[in-house]
Amino acid sequence: MTASQARDVLRQRADSVNTVSADAQVVLTRPDGQSVQLDAVLVMSGHGWMHLRAWKLGNAVLDLTIKPDGVWLMLPPGEATANATTAPTTGPLDRPGVGRQIAGMWDLLFADQFWREPEDSDVVIEDATSFDFRRASKDGLFECVVDKRTLTPSVYRLFDSNGVPQFSLELDKYASINGISWPMKIVARQAGLGGDSLSAGTIEVDLGTVELNTDLPDGAFVPPGRARKLP
Fold this sequence. Notes:
The protein is mainly beta.
């Protein structure tokens, strides 16, 4: 199959998904290597709408809400200052535009827009097992590696204009849900300051029961009061 044919298949597959809801296990790893496992739910709806909420012993400790008008994040205790909205900040999550970049990465799970871009906007590097699609954007460079055998994306990466890694979204353990291939394991990685992978934080999501194209409850995308809007 050519890269152009692979693009057509991926676009048609993405077009077939309107909503996602799932229960999950989340492992949140801090930059210092400490991790915590959480119970979670994930809901998504088309472009620009995603909500991941996680609990520990019945208490909500992590919330990532993405909407077209911004990204809100609530971290576990100890990950944010007492007044995170106004306190001075210096971490990777406080870079200008970081909210838009995070939203763009998660939105790639609904990748039909990615594949709708004109073919000539991509540079394709092909080997025996994969297609590597690369595309310039206002945020830098997007890269998507697609497995040739299954025609499923294995990783999306975002680099800044200087080629420094910013985020990656790794997709694995695909299952057929109502005839649609969907990743059951998602790992989101954020590079540290300067793209230092050693100071990166990760959110690893292992999905349980997944439902595609069902109605979502009212208020599914309302961020909690303790969440702060990312720049």
